[in-house]
Amino acid sequence: VDGLCTVNEGKVATGDLEGCFLPCTPNGCMQLIHKSGVQISGKHAVVLGRSKIVGTPMAELLKWSHATVTVCHSRTANIESVCRQADILVAAVGQPEMVKESWIKS
Prior knowledge:
The protein is of the alpha/beta class. The protein is built from 4 helices and 3 strands, in the order H-H-E-H-E-H-E. The chain has helices at residues 6-14, 24-36, 55-64, 79-84; strands at 44-48, 68-72, 88-91.
């Protein structure tokens, strides 16, 4: 079950996460973040990508976990500096090795 239907998309968008199937990849990313021990609430999360399949639902899940979320895309100005501000960075783009080490907050 991939969770990609209008009903589930609407539920994710409105924060009704208990009564829906979560999209697989964003849900997996959230599980990785939780298992890594990173606190999401109050953090600045940056999601690279705005696709309906990964980027947008990932941003919504982070938002409903009380992160401040910035979504970047191919036309985002100064994308490197935006990424450097992230406490949590999710690359949801189909371009291997797009994120460089210098983009990561130290």
